[in-house]
């Protein structure tokens, strides 16, 4: 995985400057969104002929990681990688509106929909008459009950009247891709949060003096930090493996579901160890609102249960291992 250095540096600079001037907001910051749109980052992976920037998932992953590093909460993944992508592949038109996506149950309802109460439009996915349908609906036409996740991001309940909606059919393969891409998005974000936690811990133990010497000189602290770094590295390795396979095989590799499940499982379990150890390393200061640790520890815990719970993804890994043919498990792992 490689991203142009200048592009990555520009992304970091944009979010660092915004964070310095504005506090994090649970709503979509329209000024920031407009600035990102002018830079071509809102539809980073959209085709150029459709008004996008023509970049790929590696660049998108770097963009998402940059938002996490600087504590910026904004629905770039939901808009670009999920909602607008789905409109493009199903032939439905899109415009400059801010979007999110959700999958409705048979009653026309979805819970914990990211950003639904704060975006302009919601791309709905549902199953009817033996096939999946996709519709792009103004948020004002939906019944939306606001809610939040652990870090205050909108996670809302959406109810839609599906009768008479202008929609397009979507093949099952597209819906499978949507599920996998959604799951991988959260793995990327969790990994970025864990990496930032590692950085904060290293900075803290190197500068904090206790009993006349830095915390980094205490063996017990060294063990805590090494476990943090190892778990974060494992989660990132699994996530990058899934992302690389998705990109290389255009999101249709036979083993991609297994790789995404492994990424989500590793990231979810890593979050438990990293968050616990990091707060032990920081002590009382790490529990204060003023310290930034909670921005990343709570984010990792919130995101690991979205677009599929930890138990769901653990079960996917277990099922794949149990039902693999003789020698098939190694094939899943190695690709």
Task: Describe, in plain words, how this protein is organized in 3D.
- The chain has 335 residues and is an alpha+beta fold.
- It has helices spanning 5-21, 30-38, 57-69, 76-90, 172-207, 219-248, 256-282, 293-303, 310-323, 328-334, and strands at residues 99-103, 109-114, 121-128, 131-138, 143-145, 155-159, 168-170, 209-210, 213-214.
- The strands form three sheets. A four-stranded mixed sheet has the order 1-3-4-7. Strands 2-6-5 form a three-stranded antiparallel sheet, with no helix packed on it. It has a two-stranded antiparallel ribbon with strand order 8-9.
- Helix 7 crosses helix 9 (310-323).
- The chain is globular, with a radius of gyration of 20 Å.
Major sheet summary line = 4 strands, mixed
Q: Order of strands in the sheet with the most strands?
A: 1-3-4-7
Number of separate helices = 10
Structural class: alpha+beta
In helices, the fraction of residues equals 40-55%
In terms of DSSP E residues, the strand content is: 5-15%
Distance between the termini: 17 Å
Order of helices and strands: HHHHEEEEEEEHEEHHHHH
Poorly predicted regions are: none
Shape: globular
- Tally of extended strands? 9
Overall pLDDT confidence: 94
Rg on CA atoms, Å: 20 Å
